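We treat protein structure as text, and this decision shapes the records that our systems exchange. Below, we set out a record of this kind in full and without editing:

***
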Amino acid sequence: MFYKLLRYDLKNGFRSTYRRYVTAAVAFIIMFVCSMIVIYGYNTQAKPVTPVEGNFGNALMYAFGGMDEFVPNGETAFKIPAFWLLTYLLLSYITLYYPFDDLEEFGQNILVRSRGRVLWWLSKCAWNVISVVCYFLLAWGIFAVGCLVTGNSLSMELSPEIARICMVVQDYPLPPTLIPQMLVLPLLTMIGLNLFQMLLSLFLKPFYSFIVTAAILLLSTYYLSPIAIGNYAMPLRSHMILSNGVGLNTGLLISVIFIVVSVVAGGLVFRRRDILKGEG
């Protein structure tokens, strides 16, 4: 039964969200082009001894690296990392409505028994996770193709000057690569946050749970704190770059906690939910 539900969700879920993926693809193309323009402009104007490569790693860092720690001292203006915030708000919006739209259309037939309810919830969780993975693969794929088309390499090696381009004041020299912080941790972080958003939608209308997600991401840009989960999706706030940055292991642990708690708590709540009343 679970695999039938999952096949159903994969088919109907992506059918209902594919236009949003097209929007995301266009956004990623724009981000890639902007990253190439900025890197080229830096090399032309600053004329560093070793030019910054427009490779895969540098392009990803510019677009999805996040921002330096913000210190509200009255002199420094707060600048939202637009690409980073747009990327993850769009992802959260893509996974927002389908599970509960499906509940209204299909749920009455499959959720008669408690066991059916648990399977329905687990299938939606699996669809959510797969959707997040596909979103990241789409972004990485577009940037990889862009690098190949522009004659740049797919290397994840970071140029020392990329942090300066991203306006980060480093406490430590930039490591040659930050693959776990750039690829693995943001993926797990957003899986956890999107499952948490789906859990919240059992209590709130999906729109309000999206507002909570947006607030978490926005607060994460303002505060560098291990408690603000969005920090773990910002490679530029890694403890490998900033002395008070967030750690990889801590981020992995918190992300896994978000995932497990959201899946388990959601299943327990949904087993007892009165679906005849509609959404909360």
The chain has a mean pLDDT of 91. The chain has nine helices and no strands.
